[in-house]
TrEMBL record:
Residues annotated as domain Carboxymuconolactone decarboxylase-like: 39-105
InterPro entries: AhpD-like, AhpD_core, CMD-like
Name under which the protein is recorded: Carboxymuconolactone decarboxylase family protein
Source organism superkingdom: Bacteria
One Pfam family this sequence matches: CMD
């Protein structure tokens, strides 16, 4: 934490985003600088995962958590970072498909060790095919 005052942090937020979103105003003074730095790095900064892909992950994730705030945020951010409507739909469809398999595997109580062993065999087979 850099220990900047609330007004200094809010000035930077406004310079970066054009306004200080209301949800930042609810963060306690002693945590605002820290939370903004994390937000700025993870949500806005370039990390190992390109921003468009991070936002598509966020859309998929929040299609499950059903947080309409996060779904809206990540959808709009994905578009800002170049995601197409088709890519957004694919991310949501991927989440739906993955969640369905999770429900199925857990519901039938698939043996985890067997699953892991078979997955290793599949991985080896696919790797050998080139």
């Amino acid at each position: 934490m850099t220990g900047r005052s609330r007004s200094e942090v809010e000035a930077e937020i406004k310079e970066t985003l054009g306004l200080v979103p209301h949800f930042f105003s609810q963060i306690p003074d002693d945590l605002l600088d820290h939370e903004w730095e994390i937000f700025k790095k993870i949500e806005l900064g370039e990390t190992l995962i390109p921003n468009k892909y991070k936002e598509l992950i966020g859309i998929a994730l929040h299609s499950e958590t059903k947080c309409r705030y996060c779904t809206l945020f990540h959808t709009e951010a994905a578009k800002l970072f170049g995601a197409t409507d088709e890519e957004i739909q694919e991310a949501v469809h991927y989440a739906k498909n993955s969640l369905g398999w999770s429900a199925y595997l857990n519901g039938i109580r698939e043996d985890y060790d067997d699953f892991e062993q078979e997955l290793g065999q599949i991985k080896d087979y696919l790797a050998s095919k080139g």
